[in-house]
């Protein structure tokens, strides 16, 4: 069956496009939640206490590959409305990227855990007040770096050290994208504080789409300057 015939059978109007988008949103959202399932039970059972920060990091470990697969799916989403296979793309992206993403995601979680524990016991340490501000700045910069590194590791094949360098480079090179990602982090943090740690997961598709949109200039420059095979 030709693409034209398939498109006509499915429909090409606004309603068909909306239905295709809704289908993709639901599938990606459900698969992202399912991929994060191993850590969800722990997040529900753990109390909001600084002593549980290492356990929080452990529970968040599956979220990296899951978000990477969502980014991969959205990036490779075809405009052909008759091609409704986001589930296959998600699984393909998960299998291809999980190991490489964990090389970035796990060290970042470990670093954020160390920063969080230091902030939680800041007064007991007896260090000056500016040290707390420095730790917060490190945490924010680290989160923005991780967002860029996650996109790079999800869409390209680089060594972990090269992903880290590129993410650091584009953190300053593309300030508009950095500010956009900062806005996403503020929203995610606000939802976590206002509701629960599971609240941002309910909007995983929206966060992935926003992260991918903010990263378009970075993706284009990487493809142009650092990818040999065009």
Strand content: under 5%
Biggest sheet details: none
The arrangement of helices and strands along the chain is HHHHHHHHHHHH
Shape: globular
Taking all Cα atoms into account, the compactness measure Rg is 19 Å
Secondary-structure-based class equals mainly alpha
SS summary, helix count: 12
What is the percent of helical residues? over 70%
Number of domains: 1
Total beta strand runs: 0
Mean model confidence by pLDDT = 85
Stretches with pLDDT under 50, minimum 5 residues: 1-9
What is the straight-line distance between the termini?
30 Å
Task: Please render the helix and strand layout as text.
Blueprint: H1 3-10, H2 14-45, H3 53-59, H4 63-75, H5 86-120, H6 122-125, H7 129-155, H8 160-173, H9 175-194, H10 199-202, H11 204-214, H12 216-225
Describe this protein's structure.
The protein has one domain. The protein starts with a helix and ends in a 5-residue tail after the last helix. It is built from 12 helices and no strands. It is mainly α and 230 residues long. It has helices at 3-10, 14-45, 53-59, 63-75, 86-120, 122-125, 129-155, 160-173, 175-194, 199-202, 204-214, 216-225.
């Amino acid at each position: 069956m030709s693409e034209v015939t398939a498109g006509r059978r499915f429909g090409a109007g606004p309603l068909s496009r909306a239905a295709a988008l809704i289908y993709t949103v639901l599938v990606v959202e459900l698969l992202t939640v399912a991929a994060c399932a191993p850590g969800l039970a722990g997040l529900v059972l753990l109390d909001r206490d600084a002593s549980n920060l290492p356990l929080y990091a452990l529970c968040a470990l599956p979220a990296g590959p899951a978000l990477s697969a969502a980014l991969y799916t959205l990036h490779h989403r075809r405009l052909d409305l008759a091609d409704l296979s986001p589930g296959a793309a998600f699984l393909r992206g998960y299998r291809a990227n999980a190991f490489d993403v964990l090389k970035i995601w796990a060290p970042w979680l470990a670093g954020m855990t160390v920063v969080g524990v230091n902030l939680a016991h800041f007064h007991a340490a007896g260090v000056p007040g500016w040290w707390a501000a420095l730790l917060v700045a490190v945490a924010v910069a680290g989160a923005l770096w991780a967002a860029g590194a996650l996109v790079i590791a999800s869409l390209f094949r680089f060594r972990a050290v090269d992903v880290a360098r590129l993410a650091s480079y584009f953190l300053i090179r593309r300030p508009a994208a950095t500010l956009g990602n900062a806005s996403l982090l503020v929203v995610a943090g606000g939802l976590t504080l206002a509701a629960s740690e599971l609240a941002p997961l309910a909007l995983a598709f929206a966060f992935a789409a926003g992260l991918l949109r903010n990263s378009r200039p970075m993706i284009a420059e990487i493809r142009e300057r650092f990818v040999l095979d065009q």
